[in-house]
Amino acid sequence: MLTYLGLQLRRWKTKPFVALISMMFPFLCFFILAPFLTSTTEKTTIPIAIVDEDESTYSQRIVSRLTDQQRLSIQLLPYKDMVKALQKGEVEAGFVLQEGLENEIKAGAIQDTITWMRTSNSTLDVFIKEQLGAELMRIALNAKAANTVMEASQSNKDWEEVYQYSASFWEPSPLFEMNFIKRTPSFPQQDKALLANWHKTVLVLFFFYAWTMSIWLCQQLWKDKQNGVLDRLSLVQLTPIRYYLGQGLSIWLVSLMSFLIAICAMGGRVPWDLLLQVGLWASIVLTGTIVVTYAFYLMFKLSSATLIVIESVAVVTVVATLLNQSGVSWIGDTVVPYFPPSWLMHNPFIM
């Protein structure tokens, strides 16, 4: 078996540049594209249109607070322009701050002060609505507190002065604030690092490349069959088992090395202790996938059509996994967990 493994390695040594590029390709791609991926993720904003019909101090405060949010891109538009932008899909949603908003808040009434407009394609605006409602409630509570103080006391202080005192308990952060920290069942007393969504996407793509490499390397068996190598082997040994084992071992070794090198490229973006757990489980999944792929190929007697079918399955399963990972709802959701790429997301070493 080691003889055939050595033979395969010597074949690759005849084309060292091609072998090196094939091994390092995902590693190099990550270093080139990673800065763009992270910057795109960090700079992604949600476009929101706001129509300020009230043009009061309170409405300006609401707009200012939303503008300070890094993930929002606020556009102040007239009503007609907001409707056009919404119809063209240029904004996720539109919010109309109705005329009289300041007077309504001072009176303690906040019903029907903001109109929410959206389309069937709007998805993320639900979170913006909640944030806008929270800002409106914050201002309304300050106004309510000012009204209560002015009614309960004979103070000579101005209403606005009392309002500003109430508002001071919200700046620079609320007086009472919930601090949510991620925990895991295995480590309930300490923080646990987790992979970001774009890390998972990159991991699936690395897996796809390694899987495709193993399929491509299987072509050597088909070439040996066409060149009569297997026929000559049958003359000197009863069965070509050692040949198949040697070839399979070399295919697994090269594909796994390329996969692990690519994963190491993520070391600058992911903590090494987490990356070790990810790499261990991903290597197990890749090994199982290559073994099944190789066995399936042998079962169909080294047919070139079999490789096309296997590669098609690889493409479909990877695309399906990425769709599921991005939250896209489709008819194949129920079968995605059975695909090898999706097993990467269910790491038993990371609870």
Helix percent band: 55-70%
| Total beta strand runs | 4
Biggest beta-sheet profile: 4 strands, mixed
The radius of gyration is 30 Å
Q: Helix/strand-derived class?
A: mainly alpha
Shape: elongated
Quickly count the helices. Answer: 14
**β-sheet strand percentage:** 5-15%
| Strands in their spatial order, largest beta sheet | 2-1-3-4
SSE string: HHEHEHEHEHHHHHHHHH
Pfam families: ABC2_membrane_3 (PF12698)
Main location: membrane
GO molecular function, one term: ABC-type transporter activity
Keywords: Cell membrane, Membrane, Transmembrane, Transmembrane helix
What can you see in these coordinates?
Helix content is 62%, strand content 6%. 24% of the residues are buried. It has helices at 2-13, 16-43, 57-67, 79-88, 101-106, 125-152, 159-167, 197-217, 219-226, 229-236, 241-264, 272-299, 304-325, 340-343; strands at 46-52, 72-76, 93-97, 114-117. It has a 4-stranded mixed beta sheet with strand order 2-1-3-4, with helices on both faces.
